[in-house]
Design goal:
The complex is a heterodimer of chains A (111) and B (224). Chain A is mainly alpha-helical. In chain A, 87% of the residues lie in helices and 0% in strands. In chain A, α1 packs antiparallel against α2 and α3 crosses α4. The longest helix of chain A is centred in the last third of the chain and has 46 residues. The model of chain A has no long low-confidence stretch (mean pLDDT 89). Chain B has 224 residues and is an alpha/beta fold. In chain B, β2, α2 and β3 form a beta-alpha-beta unit. In chain B, α5 packs parallel to α9. Chain B starts with a strand and ends with a helix.
Amino acid sequence: MILFQALLIFFILVIISRLILRLKHQEIRLIYFFKWLLFWLIVIGVIIFPEIINFLARNLGIGRGVDVAIYFALLLLFYFIFYLTVHIRSLESKVTKLARKIALNKKDDES
Amino acid sequence: MKTIILIPAFNEEKTIQKVINRCQPFADEIVVIDDGSKDKTSLIAKKNGAKVFKHEVNLGLGAALITGFEAALKIGADIVVTLDADGQHNPEEVPKLVQEIKNGAQFVVGSRMKHKSKKMPALRYFYNLGANLITYLLYGVWSSDSQSGLRAFSKDALCKINLNSQEMEVSSEFFKEVKKHNLVFKEVTIEPIYTKYSLSKGKTSQGFVTGLKTLARLILNKII
């Protein structure tokens, strides 16, 4: 195993330990914990056995395995940005409705 | 007909008293929406006879206006006029907008761009022109001053429109609703007033970066 692989795996193990801590403190739901755990285990698998993405690259008609990883990473990142944007807007809308309700009801109480 | 002047305000303790006092002769009631101010805006507004509704946190111009419309309808408004709290509108021009509503218009905008002798600063003129064009391209309604804060609404228009904007993009969203509900839309000419104070506030609230953010939010509203 080359140093770069070891570093990446170490980095991911740190992320997994943070994930476990969040579950322990009930900051994330069990379903999200398992989804993220699965995701990071797959990434570790690909780091240890890079032939997996080379195999994928050959079958998908993409030149190099590294390119497959970059394409998938980009796709995932765009998906997360979209998901977070929608989620933040939904939260923003909830906070606004709440603040509006408080503002309108406070006046009612006073008058 | 009960006319309410609606003033969205955020940290406007320096100007709110003067604005409320100048508005009083032209409205049956004045409603101030304090959008999470950290200063004495609410207190001063209350002392000067305005009905105050306060957001606990700062939400943005759009959210403040929507709260204001709900409040105005609740207290029986027939006509609602919106006006900026920084003193950049002359309340003596409110009757012109109210008259248009009484003549049958449902949504009236006070246009600073139509004023012949007094012009707004060149950079503001350019920003506003761009905003008018974007509003037209997105919603298909042309206004000579889509971003003007001096507007009037009839009660039936307020009952029909459904706004979702959070911040400055609300100014353009009004035109989406004009198109959607086929509202009778008129413009009246108003004087562009730029005080040192309103220009200094505008630097942060209406600059180029805010313009880009507003554009991004308008596009997001369109697709999400």
